[in-house]
Amino acid sequence: MPTIMDRRQLLTAVAASALLPVAALAQNAVTVPVAVAGKPGKVPEGMKLPLLPQLESFPLWPEGKVPGSAGVPAKEEWILRNPKDGDPNDTAALHVTNPILMVRRPAKPDGSAVLMIPGGSYTRVAVTRSGSSIDETFANLGSTVFIMTYRLPHDGWATGPEAPLQDAQRAIRLIRHRAKEFGIDPARVGVTGFSAGGHLAGWLTESFGRNTYEPVDEADKLSSKPLVTGLFYPVMSMMAPYAHETSVKNMFPKGGTDEEKRKISLEFNLPADMPPTFLAHAGDDPAVAPENSLILFQALRAQKTPTELHLFEVGGHGLIENGKDLPHLALFEIFAKRHALWK
Asked: Does the predicted TM-score (pTM) go above 0.85?
């Protein structure tokens, strides 16, 4: 059910659409339910409405410089994830060809930044175009929040499974490169990831010691190592028995060997100087087995990486109980303050 703010945003979009020519509405549009006279309803069949405006954003790569893009047939589009629910901000990006960073600016910036990586099983990027309560929470702590979209391996990129990792490395470097513009301390950049985005955030965190693409500009001379990392109900392993099978299939659409899967399973590839890593998961998660977080926590602890795990009894895939968020973000705040992301 949409919130009051969602309804206001949607009605504004309806009003704005009346002022636009039909050709303009057809671009970047989807069919969505609307509220008429305060009652739920549906747009007449065939009518289109524009998606809500995107947050301030900019591309990750200079035009024509996306690695391994030659011959890729994918065509990027944005969709509503659940059109029948009437939430115009519950969106996802499909077949990403031009990954971006969307920016949530804090009212009272403290110099920190958070790179936020949404999930989507590597099928799509489940990201809210107009921002979410999560990036709002980080912004309220003083961080400039950068929410990324990323390329998906099943779209046929020459770099295969590493296409999203290239985007993540580029993202954190670009944040540091533009630190002065955004009033950021380049040493205080953290990373958070959710579900499959948790896998990508963890993969980014452990891969700072190697470059996955040829530099394209001055930004690529900078470090891709985050100060601290938060992984929430993350996909972690690509190996049976705890792998998230949909993510595995999308990473290796033609099938992958055990050796290939092992290379991108986080528990096998942790550097000795892995940044501090926080994990949160629910024991009843029906999508991503909590063993993903348990195994990674044990591997981090064995090598004495600063780490913390919160395994909630209930919370499903999303850490929500009875319609309310569990306190995982507040617990991450304590951990991140301990490791100097926030003061």
From this structure: yes
